[in-house]
Amino acid sequence: MHFASDNTSPVPPQILDALIAANHGYAMPYGTDAIMAEVRTMIREIFEAPEAEVYLVATGSAANALALSVLCPPWATVFCHRNAHIEEDECGAPEFFTGGAKLTLVEGADAKMTPEALRVSIAHAARAGVHNVQRGAVSITNATEQGTVYSAAEVSALADVAADYGLPVHMDGARFANALMRSGASPAEMTWKAGIDILSFGGTKNGCMGVEAVVLFDPAHAWEFELRRKRGGHLFSKHRYLSAQMAAYLKDGLWLKLAARANDAATRLSEGLAAHDSARLLHPTEANAVFAAFPREAHRRAHAAGAQYYLWPMDCSLDGPGDELLSARLVCSWCTTDEEVDALLAIVRGD
Ligand SMILES: *Cc1c(COP(=O)(O)O)cnc(C)c1O
C-alpha cells in the first residue's frame, strides 16, 4: 500500500529494457545521440509541432526553472498558483535560474488559477513603473498539485489573459499525461493550440527513471535554452540514457497507458473513500492523486498495517482524539494495483 508519491514506483520493464538495449557500443554525447533524434521527431509528431525544439533534463525542477529562465527576465515576475510546485517545492530554483525573478501567487480553489484572479494579479503588478518588478510570464501546472485538471478550454482562458498583457505561458506538466488522459484533449490542444509557449513534459512521476522533456513550441529561445542548460549543469554527457528512457516512454503510447492506469487507481480509491460515511474528499479526483480526510483512528490502523502516504499537511500527528478527521494525500502510480487500493479502503472502513 504505497501511496506516498508516484515517484516511489519502479520503472516499467519497457523503459528498463530500452536502457539495456541502448547500453552497447558507442554513442555521441550531449544530446547528439541517434536516439535523441528519434525523441525529437516523436515529440514533434505527438504535439503536431514540426518546429518545436525538444531538450531533456533529469529533474522537473530543472525543466521548470530553465523554461522560466528563458521566458522571464530577472526584474520581472512569474504569475502562478499559490500551491504551484515552483512556489512550494523547488527551493527557489526558478528565482535562481531566472537570476532573481519574483513569483506572484494567484488564488483559486483546488490549486487552479481562475482567469479572473490571474487578471487581477497581472493588472495589479507593475503599476508603479520602475519601482515594481515587471510582468514576466504565467506558469500553469497540469495536472495540478491537488490532483485536479485544467481542461484545454480552461488553459486557453488563462493564456488569453496572459496574451492581453503580452506575457508568455509555461506549463508545468510533471503530470501532463495524467491531465491529458483525464481531459481527452490532444497534446496540441492542451498546449500550443491553447497558448502554451513552453512545456515541462514529465517522465519521471509517470514511470521513467529520471527524465523530463522541455518542449519549446516557439524555437526562438532554443539557443538561449541550450546555453542556460549547459551553464546550469543540466546538459547530460552520456545523454543516450536520457534519450532511451524518453523514447521508450513515448513508443506505442506507453506514457498514456501508464497514466491511465494511475488515474484509474486513484478513481477507485476516491470512489471507495467517498462511499464511506466517515471520509470526505478535499478536492475532486481528476488525475492520480486523492486528497481525503478520514478519522485519526483509521490513519492509525493504516499506519500499523504499513500503508505509506503523507498526512497533509505533513506535520499532522497520529496522536490525539481518534474520531478527529485528518487529511491525507494518497498518490497512485502506474503500478498501483486494485488489490492495494482495496486493502487500504478496507482498513479505512475498519472491516
Ligand atoms: C514532482 C513535480 C515536479 C518535478 O520535481 P523534481 O523532484 O524536481 O523532479 C514538478 N512539478 C510538479 C507539479 C511535480 O509534482
Describe the structure.
- With 351 residues, the protein is α/β, with parallel strands linked by helices.
- It has two domains: 12-254, Type I PLP-dependent aspartate aminotransferase-like (Major domain) (Aspartate Aminotransferase, domain 2, 3-Layer(aba) Sandwich), CATH 3.40.640; 255-349, Aspartate Aminotransferase, domain 1.
- Helices cover 40% and strands 16% of the residues.
- The chain is built from 14 helices and eleven strands.
- It has helices at residues 13-22, 34-46, 60-71, 85-88, 93-97, 115-124, 152-164, 176-183, 187-190, 222-231, 240-250, 254-274, 296-304, 338-349; strands at 53-57, 76-81, 102-106, 134-141, 169-173, 198-201, 212-216, 280-281, 289-295, 310-311, 325-331.
- The strands form two sheets. It has a seven-stranded mixed beta sheet with strand order 1-7-6-5-4-2-3, sandwiched between helices.
- Helix 7 (152-164) links the parallel strand 4 and strand 5.
- It is globular.
- The structure holds pyridoxal-5'-phosphate (PLP).
- The site of pyridoxal-5'-phosphate (PLP) has 11 residues, from helix 3.
- Its EC number is 4.1.2.48.
- Belongs to the threonine aldolase family.
- This is L-threonine aldolase.
